[in-house]
Amino acid sequence: MRKTERHFVTGPNSLWHVYKTVPFWKVAKNFVVIQIARYTPFLPMKNWLYKTFLGMKIGEHSSFALMVMLDVMFPEKIKVGKNSVIGYNTTILAHEYLIEEYRLGEVVIGDRVMIGANSTILPGIAIGDGAIVSAATLVHKDVPAGAFVGGNPMKVIYTAEQMAERQLESAAEQAAIESL
């Protein structure tokens, strides 16, 4: 289950209440910073922009590929651990506006996480250390540490234990080939 705070609204759908939930100038500033960073090829500069102007927590050596789209309204709710890679054109959301409510939730991405291109991460998600998210995955629930997940809807393809077994088998096969 995703960890989100629910806020109910009356009258028109919740998106019509957007500037009651987040200041216009915050959204405008965030939009400009995110757009600059999306096209910036310099990884340290991207991380500096995100930390300095958006209030994000980003671990050392984490990388945001070209065109990553962060939540424009609540980017401060996104945390990325050390040495992680966020793939091309991935979207990370910390909010969702529905008809009668809007929801907010932190997105926590662990250390050494690989997120494939064109993935979407919904609010209230935690991705454990060492996890791998396949390209074009809709991350709609937490990802266990070390797991390999993919698809829409997302499914666990390999657990951490199964991944370790596969790596041992692969290493043994490689050793056998090299000994020939």
TrEMBL record:
Q: Which GO terms describe its molecular function?
A: transferase activity
User: In its keyword annotation, does this UniProt entry include Membrane?
Assistant: no
Gene3D superfamilies listed in its UniProt record: Hexapeptide repeat proteins
Coiled coil region boundaries = none
Q: Which UniProt keywords apply?
A: Transferase
Q: Which InterPro entries does the protein's record reference? A: Hexapep, Trans_hexapeptide_repeat, Trimer_LpxA-like_sf
Q: What is this protein called?
A: 2,3,4,5-tetrahydropyridine-2,6-dicarboxylate N-acetyltransferase
Species assigned in the record: Planococcus massiliensis
Taxonomic lineage of the native organism: Bacteria, Bacillati, Bacillota, Bacilli, Bacillales
